[in-house]
Amino acid sequence: MCPSDDQVPHAAEAKADPAPQPWWKGGRRDLRTKLHAWWEGYRLPAEGKPKPVASAAPAAAKSKPAAAEPAKAAPPKDFWSPERILVAQLIWGDGFSFPGGGDFAADLAASLIVDKRSTVMDLGCGLGGGTRAIVERYGSTAHGFDLSPEQAKAGDAMSAKQGLDMRAPIAALDLENPDWKPRFYDAALLRNVVSLVTDKSALVRRAGESLKPGGRFLLIDWALSEDETQGAAFASYIEGEPRPPYLGTVAQLTFLIESLGYTVRRSEDYTKEFRPVVLEGWRRIDTIVAKGMLNANEGKALMREAELWARRIAAIDAGELRVARIEALKKA
User: Fold this and answer.
1) Which domains are delineated in the chain?
2) Which of 98, 123, 130, 328 could serve as 217's disulfide partner, Cβ 3.0–4.6 Å?
């Protein structure tokens, strides 16, 4: 449940109390107050001096098709600390670092026509919870890959602990030299990874080369609105992302995939369906805070994660950030 107004400490009470404050009531605005505002659909006044507006350069795809972007690898820095990995799982569920959970990932794989004979590439798998869910529901084999070495290491250990180290291995993605056999996979699921690289053509092409003829391909990722609006909410989103996103519209992503030899079977704005999936996970936040489940460092990680997703939702609600879903078939 959302915190009620009488659960949020008033300024006068905070001033009169000289006792040390817990982590969630430090120098920055109370986390529960922020989340209450978010859940109720209104904006709080800005704190302190406004930050300079971030450059919209990461969204350069708006002026030309994504396929024409220059080759450049994503930043090598890993933004997934142990504290962030812990906090993400408290929000999204054990083995997950982003919204959806196991049923969501397995439902996505249904459009890939996966069965026990299938071998699936799960690119952008995070901690591999979705990879393992696909294996468990369909009896298939699934290989997870993620840009974060820390997530890949933790996810592979989780697979091993569940006895799925051979059927659901998780590895770090080497963009310069991905370890994918040609014509090996029956299907590929790409989640929130194409938006993080500038050479989208190379990534999608290499993934396609690893698919068997007739293999199915599903992309779920962030995208620009079709009118390419970039206002204050979008600038805040860009500025606050750990890795700078390089976005195109759904139409541009579709053009990119078609230009690489796929037959696009379905291309849509998936934002309306995805937004409730995000909010469902965040309903756990108040319980996490109220029960004092985290130490100071973990609490700070929770604050950062809350702010990250609040910015994303704000950009979605402003119509400036969308979610693309594209299903395609590799030509024989």
Assistant:
1) 80-330 (3.40.50.150)
2) 328
Cα 264 from Cα 266, distance rounded (Å)? 6
Is 104 buried (19+), middle (13-18) or exposed (0-12) by CB count in 10 A? buried
pLDDT tens digits, residue range 254-299? 999 999 989 999 999 999 999 999 988 877 777 777 667 788 899 8
CA atoms of 111 and 226, how far apart (whole Å): 25
- The C-alpha torsion from 43 through 49 and 50 to 54, rounded to 10°, is -140
| Collapsed DSSP state (helix, strand, coil) of residue 316 | helix
The answer to whether 247 and 222 are in contact (CB under 8 A) is yes
Q: Which residue has the tokens 């609105």?
A: 225
Alpha helices (runs of H) in the chain, residue ranges in sequence order: 11-16, 31-40, 82-92, 101-110, 129-138, 149-161, 200-209, 232-240, 250-259, 271-282, 285-290, 296-317
Q: What percent of the chain has pLDDT over 90?
A: 65
What does the alpha-carbon distance between residue 13 and residue 286 come to, in Å, rounded to a whole number?
21
Burial class (CB in 10 A: 0-12, 13-18, 19+), 229: middle
